[in-house]
Write a structure and sequence with these properties.
This protein is α/β, with parallel strands linked by helices and 563 residues long. It is built from 16 helices and 27 strands. Strands 4-3-5-6-7 form a five-stranded parallel β-sheet, sandwiched between helices. A five-stranded mixed β-sheet has the order 12-13-14-15-16. Helix 1 (30-40) packs across helix 3, helix 2 (56-73) packs across helix 7 and helix 10 crosses helix 11. The longest helix is centred in the first third of the chain and has 18 residues, at 56-73. The protein is globular, with a radius of gyration of 24 Å. The N and C termini lie far apart (48 Å).
Length: 563
């Protein structure tokens, strides 16, 4: 049996030059980071939105005005305030305003249904809500079932240049809604105009809760992850340490990852504010607007998720988009097919580094070295500074497995959550002795690089063999006709489970089930071979573009029950 050497931190030898093993943290909260960047880079662009530029000075003033407004609403230290917005200017300002007065931010997905939002508003105890004009009618109706009192709404047009605003309405390019007057419903611009940029001074503790960040809810009712000011602050300081060659005030970030998701929140919004970078905001990160944003903002760094890379590579606008401005790209949230990495790097000349994280870890725990370190395609990289990682036995959940063997990835570091709000049992299950149990099956190689093999709950057992859906997905992504693929386990009379694959073909392509299974025969072991292929126009996804394997499995089992 090979010797286990996680405690030796084999990964340290692969750190890029200048990346420390430990970070000397400043005890500074996110709202103070904005104040500092506004002082240091007052006239530099902080936010870019469809031809409008908001400088750091202007963003700070906007944030201070709205913080004063929230204080007047009666929001006090420890009160929760919900944000239900895409990546637009008020989303950033409202977030920092809530933190400034000691409030707790609750970020919500604008695509969620009313029952999902009702659960999150009530579980968090949110007292006010910032949302879009298009959602006001629904939110006013929902308000009576929650503790929300004031609703502040904005619209896309609030920060569009005048010509774009007029043309956008006329050509129906940007959605607008007339908001009917109602008690305690205010427009964003009205709130900013009414209050001076002098919010009350509130002393916030570094270990106080800053956010209730809700998990995706794909495994039942979503849980409120309690992230502290220290979690948020230390995470951006860890990211800064990971990219030592990035100078403050120099980069342009592509703000496409949704800020209501912790991946976009930390790696794009908070990191940019801390570093004094401009953020080019993309409210709808579909292939066309993403490529348009690259042409308009000329970003130098692009954190994205696999479906965004895949979508852009398969969009006709790629031909008219010069992507040479992008120096680096970061991918997380779901495995990035190897072929996609090669194709994107060929199209841009940029380096993609894949990483790993989860809502409970603010989210980043692992990243591949960006420059001057060995990047391993297919690996999620190595633990970032101040982060420990181990792989433990799937059965006893405590014994370290030998290097190269599969087990559950567990992680420890300053970015680990405080716990789940109001769920001590769930917290105890996931968080043990400071180690977060990720639920991901992984391996570590001799150089300390980690590979996510699959989710513990996604593993297929066919004829007594463990089959990892990711292995099958990767084979399909290599097929020239395939745009997306997702394998699941389905009941089988003799094997227990067999493999079914859902496939989205590239535009204009056709294929048969037989052709696809035949293709797999030389690439997969017999016990891994799919028995069924279902072609679809699209696959269900989370708000950040992660394919919902669990939903496909649930739909399939429901369908089989009815037969």
């Amino acid at each position: 049996m090979a010797e286990t050497r996680y405690q030796e931190k084999l990964w340290l030898k692969s750190y890029e030059e200048g990346v420390p093993e430990f970070v000397k943290y400043e005890e500074i909260c996110m709202s103070d980071m904005l104040d500092r960047s506004a002082k240091k880079f007052p006239d530099k662009p902080a936010l870019l939105f469809q031809g409008t530029t908001v400088t750091f000075r202007q963003l700070k003033e906007m944030t201070d005005r709205f913080a004063a407004c929230l204080a007047d609403f009666g929001i006090k230290k420890g009160d929760a305030v919900a944000i239900l917005l895409p990546n637009i200017v008020p989303c950033v300002a409202a977030y920092f305003a809530i933190l400034k007065i000691g409030g707790i931010v609750v970020m919500n997905n604008p695509l969620y249904s009313d029952p999902e939002l009702e659960h999150q508003f009530n579980d968090s105890g949110a007292k006010a809500l910032i949302t879009m004009d298009l959602l006001v009618k629904r939110m006013v109706a929902l308000r009576s079932k929650t503790k929300v009192k004031q609703i502040v709404y904005t619209c896309i047009g609030d920060y569009l240049p005048a010509v774009k605003r007029i043309l956008g309405r006329w050509l129906k390019k940007y959605p607008f809604a007339e908001v009917e007057p109602a008690a305690d419903v205010f427009s964003w611009k009205e709130c900013l105009g009414k209050y001076a940029p002098n919010p009350p001074a509130v002393k916030t503790g570094f270990e106080d809760v800053a956010m209730y960040q809700y998990t995706g809810g794909t495994t039942g009712v979503s849980k409120g992850v309690m992230l502290t000011h220290a979690n948020l602050s230390k995470q951006v300081q860890q990211i800064k340490a990971w990219f030592p060659k990035f100078e403050p005030g120099t980069e342009i970030m592509l703000g496409a990852l949704p800020y209501f998701h912790v991946f976009g929140l930390s790696t794009t919004m908070n990191y940019s504010i801390y570093m004094g970078f401009a953020q080019g905001l993309v409210p709808r990160p579909q292939p066309e607007p993403l490529l348009e944003a690259i042409r308009l903002y000329r970003p130098t760094f692009a954190p994205l998720v696999p479906t965004m890379y895949i979508g852009m590579l398969n969009h006709p606008d790629l031909k008219k988009t010069d992507m040479s401005c992008i120096k680096g790209a970061f991918s997380g949230s779901a495995p990035l097919p190897v072929e996609v990495i090669h194709d994107f790097e060929k199209a841009t000349g940029a380096v993609i580094v894949e990483g790993f994280g989860m809502t409970e870890t603010t989210p980043v725990t692992h990243i591949n070295p960006f420059a001057g370190g060995a990047r391993k395609v297919g690996s999620v990289g190595i633990p970032i500074p101040d982060t420990l990682a181990r792989i433990v036995d799937l059965e006893d959940e405590v014994t370290d497995v030998p290097v190269g063997e599969r087990g559950e990835l567990i992680v420890k570091g300053p970015q680990i959550m405080l716990g789940y709000k109001g769920k001590p049992e769930e917290t105890a299950k996931t968080l043990r002795d400071g180690w977060i149990y990720t639920g991901d099956i992984a391996t570590m190689d001799e150089d300390g690089y980690f590979y996510i093999v699959d989710r513990k709950k996604d593993m297929i057992i066919s004829g007594g063999f463990n089959v990892y859906p990711r292995d099958i997905d990767e084979v399909f992504y290599l097929h020239p006709k395939v745009q997306e693929a997702c394998a699941i386990g389905v009941p089988h009379s003799t094997r227990g489970e067999s493999v079914k694959v859902f496939v989205v073909l590239k535009e204009g392509e056709t294929a048969t089930q037989e052709e696809m299974i035949e293709y797999c025969k030389t690439r997969l072991a017999t016990y891994k071979l799919p028995t069924e292929i279902e072609f679809r126009k699209e696959l269900p996804k989370t708000n950040v573009g992660k394919i919902l394997r669990k939903q496909l499995r649930a739909e399939e089992l429901e369908k089989r029950k009815k037969k």
